[in-house]
Write the structure tokens for this entry.
Amino acid sequence: MTAQIIVAAALVQNAIGEVLLVRKRGTDRYMLPGGKMEAGETPLQALVRELREELGATFQSLGARFLGVFTAAAANEPEHEVVAHLLAVSLDADVSPLAEIEEAIWVDILKPHSLPLAPLVTTAVLPIICKMGNSS
């Protein structure tokens, strides 16, 4: 049986539709910002804490939109899968990599690029972004 890691993850897009991705120190995969939920935390509470700790960022909780729960292979932990509670949020200010985050970048994930993406980005986020693009 594959071990599960329960996380809250943020889908953050800028005004031109690019998605905020982060890379943890010592890794090569780009993933959504967020992190592991602590005991008793809701996904929203975990996301507020994680974005503040890792990016110095805040968002209006009332504006957060729940997109669903998605499961994918963990990017950096072999034989684990992430169970991600995904929320779309709009940040109140620019981000600055803190804690274990090495890099934070904005990427148009629908255009060709050579970035190694975490499985959650390719299996859950890409279809969501494609669907958003088709519904406008």
